[in-house]
Design a protein that fits this description.
The chain has about 550 residues and is mainly α. It is built from 29 helices and no strands.
Length: about 550
């Protein structure tokens, strides 16, 4: 609650501050981040000494990208000993941007004393030495508590710093280690390394990092081949830019855990403050803002990266995700189609389009997109996930014979993947086809992943369909205990309990299923609860 002093200073308008704060809290509660920040800014101007306003202003300013408000709020909070630990990172970035090396060192010492981000200190200090003109490479204290975590970021920065110092041998070695560590999301990192190498005249080494024929690298390869600068982005990294990269990478890693999304968004924003021209920082911020529930802001961040630039394709991919989350499904599909149609479009682009089409119930288009994602692979090396995606789309599109062929191929390539075994087995059980073989698949899936409630349900339901009610009931009871809010699991349990003569418990399970059921399923459950189980009301 807003605290209004009994005797306010002449510069403070309590009523105005209260109204602005109330508007901010309401907007905050509704998820209207832009309106909330505007109102917090006004409230803080009316009552600059109010720490509650400053605390909320700080958080919302970071998430919305209002650097001035974040800095102002941070000063007020720090004066009261209430500044969050990421506030020190905010100030480090500001000091590095202003080339205040001495101030940055003091802040790094504070960061170490605070503890939370102390593992970043060796890398941050090495960037400061570059700014001071007396470079000292980062050294990780091996016996330190967070040495392993610090090593995750070390090679990337050793490589960038070595490029800047002209030590290409050290750079190339560290570069390969950094890329191998991030094999699944290395496109932006490859572009950044290539740009830095090109800036040092290492054209062949730069091109070697960018696989030919990949749409994500087409513009960069063309520019490097022609000796053309990527709109200033091949300039060697400054200490502020190096620190921004460190925060961006940390933000992405933290946000990979759902509990870290909010902190990840804040760190990503601080990175864009330290290097507002960094395409990679904007791309990571776009991704995390979209995941964090602010897709409009995610779209805005993605839009800061020029389409016809080195990073344009990667930014456009994040824009697709942001558009889909804002509800602009048609716009997202149209842009995803454009990206997937480009020469050299990789599997990720095709999968993104396929998922959007599947969500739109265009299962034919989705299956085609998932099939296109497999083109670059040898027949016996196609990732099983792509086959599962295609088989799922075909199955949902009522092309079961084709789906079964694809899913069986997936199961042959990955015989120990419980997800595939479950999908193939359950799909056959639903159709009452090949029941005995399907039951074997589900038993194997359950043995591989016994704690998965969905797979446990599939096994119990297969046992019920095969006539082994006694075996099915305890299995389905275990599935319901693991997924108490799942309508399908509870309906299956109810049907099995009814068949076992446990009528009261069966109705209880059906009632539990009806809580989240919709449409035809809800109607079927209501009928069963009233009339009991008959063939026409049996679960599919």
């Amino acid at each position: 609650m807003l605290t209004i002093p009994a005797v306010a200073e002449a510069s403070v308008d309590p009523a105005s501050a209260l109204h602005a704060y109330a508007r901010a809290r309401l907007a905050d509660g509704d998820g209207a981040l832009g309106s909330a920040v505007s109102s917090y800014r006004a409230a803080l101007a009316f009552d600059p000494d109010n720490t509650d306003i400053a605390r909320r202003s700080y958080a919302q300013a970071l998430e919305s990208g209002d650097q001035a408000l974040a800095m102002r709020s941070a000063v007020l909070l720090d004066a009261q000993g209430m500044l969050p630990r990421d506030g020190t990172l905010l100030w480090v970035g500001d000091a590095l941007t202003r080339k205040d090396w001495a101030g940055a060192r003091i802040l790094i010492d504070r960061m170490v004393a605070e503890g939370n981000f102390a593992f970043l200190a060796p890398i941050a200090r090495s960037w400061i030495t570059l700014g001071e003109g007396q470079y000292v490479p980062p050294v990780i204290e091996e016996k330190g508590q967070f040495a392993a975590l610090a090593h995750r970021y070390l090679d990337e920065h050793v490589a960038f710093q070595a490029i800047r110092s002209g030590d290409l041998a050290t750079a190339l070695s560290a570069m390969q280690r950094a890329i191998s560590l991030r094999a699944n999301d290395s496109a932006a990192l490859r572009l950044s390394f290539a740009g830095q190498l090109a800036a040092q005249g290492a054209k062949a080494e730069a091109l070697a990092l960018l696989p030919e024929g990949n749409a994500n690298f087409t513009i960069a390869r063309t520019d490097i081949s022609r000796g053309k600068d990527s709109k200033g982005r091949t300039a060697l990294l400054t200490p502020a830019q190096g620190f921004a990269r460190l925060l961006s990478r940390l933000a992405a890693d933290i946000a990979s855990d759902e509990a870290g999304i909010t902190l990840g968004m804040r760190l990503a924003r601080i990175a864009t403050f330290a290097d507002p021209q960094s395409a990679e920082a904007h791309i990571i911020a776009a991704q995390l803002l979209t995941i964090g529930g602010y897709p409009a802001f995610g779209a805005a961040e993605a839009g800061k990266v020029p389409v016809k630039s080195w990073y344009g394709g990667l930014a456009q991919a994040e824009l697709v995700n942001a558009q889909a989350e804002t509800g602009d499904r048609n716009g997202a599909i149209a842009l995803a189609r454009t990206l997937a149609a480009e020469p050299g479009a990789d599997a990720e682009r095709q999968v993104r389009l396929g998922r959007l089409l599947a969500d739109a119930k265009d299962f034919t288009g989705a299956a085609a997109a998932f099939r296109a994602a497999q083109v670059g692979y040898a027949p016996d090396a196609v990732p099983w996930t792509l086959l599962l995606f295609e088989g799922s789309a075909l199955e949902q599109g009522k092309r079961w014979d084709e789906a079964r062929t694809v899913l069986e191929r997936a199961a042959k390539l990955a015989p120990n993947e419980p997800v595939i075994l479950n999908y193939l087995g359950y799909a056959q059980i639903e159709r009452r086809q090949n029941v005995e073989e399907a039951l074997k698949l589900l038993k194997r899936a359950s043995a591989l992943k016994p704690q998965d409630a969905s797979i446990t349900d599939s096994l119990g339901w297969a046992q019920y369909i095969s006539g082994d009610v006694a075996a099915a009931v305890p299995v389905l009871e275990r599935a319901a205990a693991g997924a108490p809010g799942d309508p399908t699991v509870n309906e299956h349990l109810g049907d099995a309990l009814w068949a076992a003569g446990r009528r009261y418990e069966a109705r209880y399970a059906w009632n539990a299923a009806s809580v989240y059921a919709e449409g035809d399923v809800a109607a079927r459950l209501a009928a069963k609860s009233k009339e009991g189980l008959t063939p026409e009301y049996a679960a599919p």
